[in-house]
Task: structure prediction
Amino acid sequence: MPFYSDPSVKYKKFVNPVKLQNREWPAKSLHKTPRWLATDLRDGNQALPDPMSLEEKKLMLGKLCDIGFKEIEVAFPSASSIDFQFTQYAAKTVPDDVYIQVLSPCREELIYKTIESVKGSKNAIVHLYLATSACFRRVVFNNLSQEEAKKKAVEGTKLVRSLTKDNPDTQTTNWNYEFSPETFSDSDPEFVIEICEAVKEAWEPSREKPIIFNLPATVEMTTPNVYADQIEYFCKNISNRETACISLHPHNDRGCAVAAAELAQIAGADRVEGCLFGNGERTGNVDLVTLALNLYTQGISPKLDFHDISSIIDVVEKCTKLPVHPRAPYGGQLVVCAFSGSHQDAIKKGFQHYDSQVAKQSEGTVVPWHLPYLPLDPQDIGRTYEAIIRVNSQSGKGGASWVILKNMQLDLPRGLQVAFSKVAQAETELVGKELRSSQLCELFATTYYVDIEGRFSLVDYEFTRRRGLCFLDLFLSIEGEPQVQKLFGEGNGPISCFVNAINSTLSLELDVQDYHEHSLGRDSSSKAATYISVSTTGDNPHVQWGVGIHENVTQASFLSLISCLNSLSRDYHI
Ligand SMILES: CC(=O)SCCNC(=O)CCNC(=O)[C@H](O)C(C)(C)COP(=O)(O)OP(=O)(O)OC[C@H]1O[C@@H](n2cnc3c(N)ncnc32)[C@H](O)[C@@H]1OP(=O)(O)O
Ligand SMILES: CC(C)C(=O)C(=O)O
Ligand SMILES: [Mg+2]
Result:
């Protein structure tokens, strides 16, 4: 079968069925938290190759309650004995403020079974669906007319009513009702209003207990603006709007479910049905994690708790047996990781800037978050800063030095950052993959630390200062020499004494290029970290950095210089 050069022969453009006068939604924005319904245990579950076991369903239900969902579609009770049993379990165990929702087609025997399963619950929502689109009525229901569809929906609703809110034997349950004109997004908008009016009349909702009209994009047909139009049209044309809760149920066939849900809320919807991380039929239901955290990052509380997103991912992956994509918005393992140099540089500077702003504020004041490349503070969802920056062949100096800072508390001077990034680059190219933090730290230590094996090691020293001049007796163990060598140097400070001692004894011409130090802690017993670069002279001078750490800053400097000597000896045979 060819991939058509002219697809218009096979695929017809979806024409917006709504003629909306004075369209209002484009001028509005999202400003409130919707009612959420999690359908992981129904729509999500029915789309899995291996539906959840009873134990998995229990685990998922517990997690959904912990997150804070107050409406949870727990099953399609007439589908299987697991669904039926689980609904009975959920009916008895969910917290008092949680509504459990159950789905049934408009088929009498299945409605009986569905309502049977939910008996004894404190709050229940019985949910019936019937497809309204011309395509489904023609193809699936064998030319079911609009009138016949309406009759079916009304009969189903009346049956639910008689078994629930009108049934004197079941009054311990707070009964609610939801009707979904399935395939809403592909349906004639006038007919949807007509069938919903008939269902509403049959149910007789009140302002206090509205009926839920769930308007699904069962299949996402076109761009999200059209769904928003369809929702605005419905909201404006359904009678007694205050007695109806308008619910969305977007699927993600075109990859726009989140956008569709957001625009449709702006267009007037009150409630959203979806699944964690977008599980669900085909490309999935709308992803509730993304919707909720999109609100959160606009400063609106989603009233759902994602502070420990990893534990949520664990449960989702265990129950669905599907991995959460590493690039899933917010939750994916890689979404708070930067590998590329420019991103790392910007993130590192972003944190430095943010920390300096925080330091200026009085305690308890929150500094607004606006960091390059990070729309959300990873800590808000339980991610650590340490893992944000990872180093591979695409990385730059900022990335490698961030890892060293976060893992070794060493704040490398710029020159050493540049030098180390070349070392890291060579290593990542050699191994052909990312360097883990521990590997990078080891690479840093073996390249710049004194406590690696080398030709020189510091045995002792005596440093004195007399009348503005400094003198150093330096005791080194030098590979190949039978005993400890005593060197002597003069200078205007310990470092120059050391270098002069080395230069005169070994006939070298080393120059100190750069020196930095900082303490590695806040108290007086903290260690000092020193960073020194020395250069060789001659036609092909080479600059070598060394790092030393010691309680005594002079000794830390000497250790840095020993490290430089060992590296130069190893690489340049000085
Ligand atoms: C968009 C959605 O997600 S809808 C929810 C879908 N979820 C599920 O289907 C999961 C659970 N389903 C099941 O376990 C089974 O399909 C059952 C138990 C509901 C029904 O099983 P069966 O009786 O074997 O019916 P089957 O699944 O083959 O076919 C569907 C039948 O229901 C009819 N039907 C489909 N939707 C509806 C509806 N909303 N209301 C009334 N009848 C419907 C079809 O027209 C078809 O009838 P037909 O056999 O006369 O042509
Ligand atoms: C049952 C309905 C609401 C559904 O899942 C859909 O249309 O996608
Ligand atoms: Mg669905």
Remarks:
- Residues 456-572 form a domain with the Double Stranded RNA Binding Domain fold (CATH 3.30.160.270).
- The chain is about 40% helix and 20% strand.
- The first helix runs from residue 40 to 46.
- The mean pLDDT is 95.
